[in-house]
Design a protein that fits this description.
With 196 residues, the chain is of the alpha+beta class. Helices cover 22% and strands 28% of the residues.
Length: 196
């Protein structure tokens, strides 16, 4: 792409500019950012989550897709979460999910920590999204954000293996065992007081 780094693009110009380029790009406030690839652990977690969600999504008439499905969060912003569950009618030519209900982000060196809060707010502002999961890679921890009936959001931290994480919109659940399958991920270290 031979454009100035700070030149702003429309969504249409963004898709035209990235067409045929390797790698993953995001459009944030009209500015194109390059994202880097993930570690093997990141990719394994992504595969594990997709493997678990694809059958449940199909049963509900939705599709679980990977990192190459964009989510338009503003008129000049397209994000690429690690997993998206989309309830829109099938459209092989679609560049973005038009009715996302669930979004999964896996911790990555490609996403600055300060960006996670911004992304979460963008996802929560989308009408159809009812669940946003943030998954840690270095230790076993999943933060699940759920939209309540009154439109408010709650957050649940899951750090125990064997505990079902309910996903009502897909009529299924997910466990840390499934998410971290084949990885030697341990619980987050905790400080223990010694007895005298």
């Amino acid at each position: 792409m031979a454009r100035d780094e700070q030149e702003t693009l429309s969504i249409g110009e963004f898709f035209a500019a990235i067409s045929g380029h390797d790698g993953v790009f995001e459009l944030v406030g009209g500015i194109v950012y390059v994202t880097t690839g993930g570690t093997e652990a990141h990719n394994v977690i992504c595969s594990n989550v997709l493997t678990a969600l694809v059958p449940a999504a199909k049963r509900t008439g939705a599709r679980a897709t990977s990192r190459l499905t964009g989510v338009r969060t503003a008129p000049d912003t397209v994000r690429y979460p690690d997993v998206v569950v989309d309830c829109s009618p099938p459209d092989a030519a679609a560049m973005t999910a038009s009715r996302p209900v669930m979004i999964v982000e896996i911790a990555s060196i490609a996403i600055p920590v300060v960006d996670y809060g911004t992304r979460l707010c963008e996802y929560q502002a989308l009408d159809g999204v009812d669940t946003v999961m943030q998954i840690e890679v270095a230790f076993a921890c999943v933060l699940v954000h759920r939209r309540q009936e009154d439109g408010s959001w709650t957050a649940e931290r899951v750090e125990q293996f064997g505990v079902a994480i309910a996903l009502p919109s897909l009529a299924t659940s997910l466990t840390l065992d499934e998410i971290y399958d084949t990885l030697a991920v341990k619980p987050r270290p905790r400080l223990r007081r010694q007895q005298r």
